[in-house]
User: Fold this.
Amino acid sequence: MRAGERVVVVGAGVTGLTTAFVLAEAGASVHLIAEQVPGVTSLAAGAMWGPYLVEPKDKVDQWGQRSLEIFRKLAEDPSTGVRLTSGIEASRTAEAPPDWATTLPGFRPCELAELPAGFSAGYRFTVPLIDMPTYLDYLLRRLDAAGGTVERRRLASLVDAGPAAVIINCTGFGAKDLLPDPDLRPIRGQHVVVTNPGLTEFFSEDTGLSPDLLCFFPHGDTVVLGGTAIDGEGDVTADDKAAANILARCAEVEPRLAEARVLEHRIGARPNRATVRVEAERQEDGTVVVHNYGHGGAGVTLSWGCADEAQRLVGER
Ligand SMILES: Cc1cc2nc3c(=O)[nH]c(=O)nc-3n(C[C@H](O)[C@H](O)[C@H](O)COP(=O)(O)OP(=O)(O)OC[C@H]3O[C@@H](n4cnc5c(N)ncnc54)[C@H](O)[C@@H]3O)c2cc1C
Assistant:
């Protein structure tokens, strides 16, 4: 990393903001360009640390562990929006626990009596929950404090981001048209945000590959209820029927949610790809582009690990 070198980061979702901050703190002169500040898909996340709809496993494990270390530290300061929270992941079909959960603090199988009606297995563990509006705002403040600048602008091509020694492409699903990258596929997700009727623990059902998810994540005064995973759909307008179904599924497991007031609907397009793309590519004019996109349903979980990898690639060019 050459001190003071101009680096342009494109994208202000969790990937772009984390990467921009890591580079600015390492001494680069970082300018961030994005159409949405912060990115809508990142705002829509639940968000719980844990890999979902993302490959390749070995890299995902490594990037996820790095992020977990940092989220644990961030949880010491409530103003970050990160909290270590205990809760249950359960299944109606007696599934084995997800391997990523077994090493988390407090991991243990649940007694049947601890589970909601209809569930046959479950596991309790403590994990970082991230309140995304608060957390993205925190990242923006840290980027500003590290000397980074932010510009709202839609780019028709990555060339328009220059001049810069390095351009970092953190455009999420936007990379599909911007590059273009035909391998990117949207998986639409919807959350309903409600007032918190007193929940302090999360709940998540292992729903396998179903498009109908069931989870709730308390964030102080609010609870984020999920969700959906509609393969191939990138439209981010609210679907009232999907929202009503989410509320009904969650209230069946936690009856206190039935009376909670709906505050907001959050919808995003998970940027899915066969594998996450973190790699460097030299353009014809000599500019190096470092790609960092395609994080599927785990962009928050992988954000710090992938930002470190992008920084390494910038340093190695
Ligand atoms: C409902 C839902 C729940 C989720 N839950 C979780 C969870 O619990 N845990 C987890 O880890 N992950 C979760 N995810 C996945 C996570 O939200 C994504 O993987 C992550 O947000 C991707 O972040 P990103 O920064 O790469 O993309 P985005 O947040 O989409 O940001 C892309 C940025 O690029 C900009 N951009 C794109 N194209 C252009 C262009 N042409 N010109 C200028 N700017 C451009 C956009 O404006 C935006 O600022 C969830 C997603 C959804 C939808």
